Amino acid sequence: MFEEEQEPEFEIFSALLFNSLKAITFMFFISFAMINKPADEGKVDPKAEMMITVTWPDNNPDDVDTYVEDPAGNIVWYNQREAGLMHLERDDRGMFKDVILLDGKEISNPLNQEIVAFRGLEDGEYVVNVVHYIANGTAPLPVQVKVEKLNPAVKIIYYQTLQLKGTGDEQTAVRFTLKGQDVVNVNTIPKSLVELTRSSGNKEGGSGSGGQAGAGAPIDATTGQVVQK
Ligand SMILES: [Ca+2]
Ligand SMILES: [Ca+2]
């Protein structure tokens, strides 16, 4: 009698245990999949506080460069892709390397876009410049610049289209000052950042890692090699 009663109980217990194990295994795989996903997609830091997006027409072969200076004087650009809390996600060189191989097929990416993401913000003035590094035509190139503060809610600080007028043309899209959560003194007074990055007194390397090609040296947009002047 005693044994007959114990057995079903034991069966229930082992069935529960088995099901719990299955559930735990299932949850383990789910969480593992969730952990892995952002790493694959991780193009833009999901914790970004601010984002600057520079876009020019699809398939246009021109190379446009984005330069951003923070209040501490750090400048992020193609040769210094990490500076302070800023990160240039990608140096888009027009059509250069816009063809990727996928399953043995060439797929071209028509997009012309550079993104600068900010992991954190500091009080003080920021300067956002765009530079027409390589122009292939003679008509002005429309370049759209968008500056967004992302937290606590998305706020567009600046959204305009500039006309770049040929190789070497550097324009200040916008300057703005952060004061806590406030954005003040938004203006377009020109300030050259190219000059600052090329001047010998400028700190090289900083906190960044992209300076191995020699900070300060321009890169040929068609070959990707450092231009010796
Ligand atoms: Ca570029
Ligand atoms: Ca491109």
* Proportion of residues in β-strands: 35-45%
Gyration radius from CA atoms, angstroms: 26 Å
Summarize the biggest pleated sheet: 6 strands, antiparallel
Question: Which runs of at least 5 residues are low in confidence (pLDDT < 50)?
Answer: 36-42, 202-217
Tally of separate domains: 2
Quickly count the helices: 2
Mean of pLDDT: 82
The ordered string of helix (H) and strand (E) elements is HEEEEEEEEEEEEEH
Quick synopsis:
Helices cover 20% and strands 36% of the residues.
Structure characterization notes:
This protein is α+β, with helices and mostly antiparallel strands. It has helices at residues 2-41, 194-198; strands spanning 50-56, 63-69, 75-76, 82-83, 86-88, 99-102, 105-108, 112-118, 124-134, 141-149, 155-164, 170-179, 182-187. The protein folds into 2 domains: 1-42; 50-199, Lipoxygenase-1, CATH 2.60.60. The strands form 3 sheets. It has a 6-stranded antiparallel sheet with strand order 4-5-8-1-10-11, with no helix packed on it. A 5-stranded antiparallel sheet has the order 3-2-9-12-13, with no helix packed on it. A two-stranded antiparallel sheet has the order 6-7. The protein is elongated, with a radius of gyration of 26 Å.
